[in-house]
């Protein structure tokens, strides 16, 4: 996709005249389009990539000032895109997104230079705040954080999807009885 600019920009990510280029790398096409539109409305000049290979190619052509990178992409890890950005430009402000959050990956992303690590589904406001926070600023605690039951349910759903919706394999990976898993999958998501 090509770079697009915002017609009527709302909030400006930085001081006027500064480089507001933003690369968003995510293989979820609807999410990618929504986030790109939301970031354009906040004053960024957005470029999009749907794979690790495409992201790295765009970074090599023109490293952005800001980047939002999904950690798990169809053709590999978003950490490769972060490394490519750091090779070209050390001042890029990077936020990592993932639906597969764990401590080890968060630590790796931060060591590679990510500013923040947000779990999907993250909204545009959270991403904007993470990209534009000043050094040393702490993110606010969410007003309505997910309940423990919801976090558990989301994790089970992610493992289930990564096992291509195979209940037996999911139960084995989660060290859970198959019937218990089937009951959980049959229920609606907790709030």
Going by CATH, the architecture of the largest domain would be: 3-Layer(aba) Sandwich
CATH topology of the largest domain: Rossmann fold
User: What class, by secondary structure content?
Assistant: alpha/beta
Classify the helix fraction into a percent range: 40-55%
Number of strands: 7
What's the SSE blueprint?
Elements: E1 21-25, H1 29-41, E2 45-49, H2 52-61, E3 66-70, E4 72-73, E5 76-77, H3 78-88, E6 93-98, H4 103-111, E7 114-119, H5 124-132, H6 148-162, H7 167-174, H8 178-186
Parallel strand pairs: 1-2, 1-3, 3-6, 6-7
Antiparallel strand pairs: 4-5
Helix pairs in contact: 2-3, 6-7
Domain Response regulatory: 21-135
Pfam family, one: Response_reg
Modified residues (4-aspartylphosphate): 70
Description:
This protein folds into two domains: about 20-130, Response regulator (Rossmann fold), CATH 3.40.50; about 150-185, Orthogonal Bundle (Arc Repressor Mutant, subunit A). Helices cover about 45% and strands about 15% of the residues. The protein has helices spanning about 30-40, 50-60, 80-90, 105-110, 125-130, 150-160, 165-175, 180-185; strands spanning about 20-25, 45-50, 65-70, 70-75, 75, 95-100, 115-120. The strands form two sheets. A five-stranded parallel β-sheet has the order 2-1-3-6-7, with helices on both faces. Strands 4-5 form a two-stranded antiparallel sheet. α2 (about 50-60) runs parallel beside α3 (about 80-90) and α6 (about 150-160) crosses α7. The radius of gyration is 18 Å and the shape is elongated.
């Amino acid at each position: 996709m090509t770079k697009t600019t915002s017609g009527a920009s709302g909030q400006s990510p930085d001081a006027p005249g500064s480089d507001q280029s933003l690369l968003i790398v995510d293989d979820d096409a609807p999410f990618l389009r929504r986030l790109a539109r939301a970031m354009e409305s906040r004053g960024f000049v957005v470029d999009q990539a749907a794979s690790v290979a495409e992201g790295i190619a765009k970074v090599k052509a023109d490293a952005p000032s800001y980047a939002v990178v999904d950690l798990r992409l169809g053709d590999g890890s978003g950490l490769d895109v972060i490394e490519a950005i750091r090779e070209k430009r050390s001042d890029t402000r990077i936020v990592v997104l993932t639906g597969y959050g764990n401590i080890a990956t968060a630590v790796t992303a931060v060591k590679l230079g990510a500013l923040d690590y947000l779990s999907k589904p993250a909204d545009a406001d959270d991403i904007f705040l993470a990209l534009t926070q000043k050094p040393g600023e702490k993110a606010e605690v969410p007003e309505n954080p997910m309940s423990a039951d919801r976090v558990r349910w989301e994790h089970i759903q992610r493992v289930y999807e990564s096992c291509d919706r195979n209940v037996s394999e999911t139960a084995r990976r989660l060290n859970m009885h198959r019937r218990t898993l089937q009951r959980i999958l049959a229920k609606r998501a907790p709030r």
